[in-house]
Amino acid sequence: MSAFPDDRRDLAAMFAPLTRALIAREEPVLHANDISMWGYIVLTALADQPVRTQAALAQAINADKSRIIGVLDELQERGLIHRQPDETDRRVHLLSLTPAGDRLRRSVEAGIRRREDQVLSVLTPADRDAFLESLKALYDRRNEIMEA
């Protein structure tokens, strides 16, 4: 007999271990590409919105702005991002992805997608499509979910 009336655990109880397993599967890809998870998150955020302030980036990736300074320094040193003062406010730094940064981001994303495909292969194609569509819908509405 299950402890749950409908034989289903709470969503967080299902997502948390799955998330940890997915992150563990991504780590070898990140390591092979010599980038941290935070570095990849920054590159992805800059690909989504090409120019951001450091504060806007921190908010977009849900990180403390002081927490990402070291990540930004490393990415800049490696030529993966541009960081320059805003002409209208020299206290503000504008961030953008370099071509090298975008190539690295695409390489990491391709490796991660291959590993995700392995995980998703346990589902039928129809279940896989429905799962990804539903997950994307929840992700797109995450701000509404947080406020509810």
Fold blueprint:
Layout: H1 11-32, H2 37-48, E1 51-53, H3 54-60, H4 69-77, E2 81-85, E3 93-97, H5 99-120, H6 125-140, H7 142-147
Antiparallel strand pairs: 1-3, 2-3
Compact description:
This protein has helices at 11-32, 37-48, 54-60, 69-77, 99-120, 125-140, 142-147, and strands at 51-53, 81-85, 93-97. It is mainly alpha-helical and 148 residues long. Helix 1 packs across helix 5 and helix 2 (37-48) packs across helix 5.
Task: Explain what you see.
This protein has 148 residues and is mainly alpha-helical. The protein is 64% helix and 9% strand. It has 7 helices and 3 strands, in the order H-H-E-H-H-E-E-H-H-H. It has a 3-stranded antiparallel beta sheet. The model has no long low-confidence stretch (mean pLDDT 92).
List keywords for this structure.
148 residues; mainly alpha; 3-stranded antiparallel beta sheet; 7 helices; 64% helix; globular
